[in-house]
Amino acid sequence: MKPLLLDLFCGAGGAAMGYHRAGFDVIGVDIAPQPHYPFDFIQADALTPPVRLGAFDAIHASPPCQGYTTMNNRHGSSIARSIEPTRALLAGSGLPWVLENVPGARSRMVNPVRLTGEQFGLGVHRPRLFEMNWLALTPSPAPRQDDPVAVYGRNDGRRLWTRADGSELHVADLESARCGMGMPWAEWDGIREAIPPAYTEFIGAQLLEQVA
User: Which of 59, 115, 133, 148 lies at a C-alpha separation of 20 to 30 Å from 88?
Assistant: First the structure.
């Protein structure tokens, strides 16, 4: 039987797919419906999940990142910040856990590991931080790519900025986003906030050693 992982704030299932590929069975919890989530799903508040945590072997949590983005850090935000209560839930479980968020949350996280798409040969940059209550290795650094796929905001193809050479970066179309993120099942509203599965497949392989 495979070890069982609880995926809190599961979203579209990018993190879950990586853990599945690493060797876990996964159950996701999110307060919003997730019709494209690729594994068993429970619609509920992730901070009060209706499951017994002791029934799982490990937990991953990706609390909403909107309150920690660079723009919201600069101008303030009414969006709830939930890293601290999420960490308290994870710590109280007594299980190995992973807590993920955006680079803007670094001051709220403890010794996080930073992963980017370039480290895994992906078409996106997508930097993300991972805090764990166990020691994880990190992949070799990789230089930032010049023309990453832009998977942000509305799927309207708008220009995001003009580069020094005069070329323009536009929001990607859905197929380019799926390819760049490694999430061929996802729809735009899910993929634009997701973690590439390659990140959690890498972490999950090490997490398996923690639950063995």
Answer: 115
pLDDT computed for residue 90 by the predictor: 98
Determine the Cα–Cα distance for residues 118 and 58; give it in Å rounded to an integer.
27
- Domain ranges in the chain are 4-211
**Around Cβ 155, how many Cβ atoms within 10 Å?**
17
Cβ atoms of 104 and 114 within 8 Å: the answer is no
**CATH code given to domain 4-211:** 3.40.50.150
Q: For 23-51, what is the mean pLDDT? A: 96
Rounded CA gap, 196 and 170, in Å? 20
Give the type of residue at 41: F
Query: Distance between CA atoms of 64 and 87, rounded to whole angstroms?
Result: 13
**Predicted confidence band of residue 177 (pLDDT cuts 50, 70, 90):** very high
Q: Please state, in angstroms and rounded to a whole number, the distance separating the CA atoms of residues 203 and 138.
A: 9
